[in-house]
Amino acid sequence: MMKQRKVPLRKCVACQEMMPKKELIRIVKTPEDEVLIDLTGKKSGRGAYLCGKVSCFKLAQKNKSLDRALKHHVKPEIYAQLAEDFISVEDEFLAVKESSVDE
Questions:
Q1: Most buried of 67, 80, 88, 99 (most Cβ within 10 A)?
Q2: What is the DSSP string of 71-100?
Q3: Judging by DSSP bridges, how do beta strands 24-29 and 9-11 pair with one another?
Q4: Taking a C-beta distance cutoff of 8 angstroms, is the pair 56, 93 a contact?
Q5: Is the pLDDT of residue 79 over 70?
Q6: Which long-range contacts (CB under 8 A, 24 or more apart) does 69-73 make?
Q7: How far is CA 31 from the centre of its chain?
Q8: What is the maximum span of the chain, computed from C-alpha positions, in angstroms?
Q9: Within 10 A of 11 (CB to CB), how many other CB atoms are there?
């Protein structure tokens, strides 16, 4: 029997659910203190994960869980930017998710 590759799990900072890393959207605070969405998951900096649901994004904004996870104040305009990015990445993200199912 083939040994299953261990799937790296991460926790959504909003709903606290553990999920495979590639099903979560990584938000990173770079060493330059920029907060951005990291679709590659490779950018250096402190990362926080959100599952792809807009409800989780809104929850993270409301209860400041993103700020806590990144140990950094996330400015309202960052949230606005993230909200836009989130909607645009959601399609891309779901497409990636679909394609990774067939592997």
A1: 67
A2: TS---HHHHHHHHHHHHHHHHHHHHHHHHH
A3: unpaired
A4: no
A5: yes
A6: 69/13, 70/27, 70/29, 70/35, 70/46, 71/29, 71/46, 72/29, 72/33, 72/35, 72/46
A7: 18
A8: 51
A9: 16
Residue 27 DSSP SS3: strand
Q: pTM of the entire structure?
A: 0.78
Residue with tokens 């836009």, as numbered in its chain: 84
Residue 61 near residue 79 (C-beta atoms within 8 A): yes
Q: If you search the block for the tokens 């409301």, which residue do you land on?
A: 62
d(CA 99, CA 103): 8
Which is more confident, 71 or 22?
71
